[in-house]
Specification:
29% strand; binds zinc ion
C-alpha cells in the first residue's frame, strides 16, 4: 500500500455522504501519543477505513488498523513485539441525543460538521489495543509463580492456589 499522510482535518458527515475511503500505510510517527510508549518508532500502520452511511442514514467510520509495535516488557525491560489489529466501528453523531437512537452496543463519537482529526481518532483506537503494562508471556508466568522464599513458612492464600491450578504449566 502507498505511504499515506492522513488528512489534517475532515468533514465527517460529508465524507460519509460520499463514502470516502482512507487506505494506506501511515508512519507510526504520525501518532505521537502512541509513540511515547514505544521502544521503537519505526514502522507503519496499515489503515483501511471508510466513512459511510448505513440503511438508516447513520454515518459510520469503519475499518481496520494493523501494525506491529515494539514495547518494553515491564518485567525484564527487553523489547517485545506486539502485533496489533484493531477493528474500528464508530457511529458519528452530532450529540448525545443522536447517540440515543443507536443500538445500545454501538460505539460512537460525538463530532462536529468539520474539523475531525482522523489521526487522533485512529490513535485512540490503537492506544486502547495496547496493554498498559506490557510484558512477555513468559515473563508474566514467571512473575505469577515466584519461588517460595527459602526458610520461611507461609500460609498459602487459597485464591493463589486456585489461580496456580487454573493456569497452564510454566516452562517444563
Ligand atoms: Zn520480558
Amino acid at each position: 500500500m502507498p505511504v499515506l499522510s492522513l488528512p489534517a482535518s475532515i468533514e465527517p458527515f460529508k465524507w460519509a455522504d460520499r463514502a470516502a475511503q482512507v487506505a494506506g500505510d501511515v508512519p507510526l510517527a504520525s501518532f505521537p501519543r502512541l509513540c511515547e510508549g514505544l521502544a521503537d518508532q519505526a514502522g507503519t500502520v496499515q489503515v483501511d477505513c471508510r466513512f459511510e452511511r448505513d440503511a438508516q442514514r447513520v454515518p459510520w467510520l469503519r475499518g481496520t488498523l494493523t501494525t506491529s509495535v515494539t514495547l518494553t516488557c515491564q518485567r525484564c525491560l527487553k523489547p517485545m513485539a506486539l502485533p496489533v489489529s484493531v477493528e474500528v466501528e464508530l457511529a458519528l453523531v452530532h450529540d448525545e441525543e443522536d447517540a440515543e437512537r443507536l443500538s445500545d452496543d454501538a460505539d460512537y463519537l460525538v463530532v462536529s460538521e468539520q474539523g475531525l482529526i482522523l489521526a487522533e481518532i485512529l490513535e485512540d483506537e490503537l492506544l486502547l489495543a495496547i496493554p498498559y503494562i506490557p510484558s512477555h508471556e513468559s515473563c508474566e508466568l514467571e512473575y505469577r509463580n515466584p519461588e517460595e522464599p527459602v526458610g520461611e513458612t507461609r500460609r498459602e492464600n487459597p485464591f493463589q492456589v486456585l489461580a496456580a491450578l487454573k493456569k497452564p504449566a510454566a516452562d517444563e
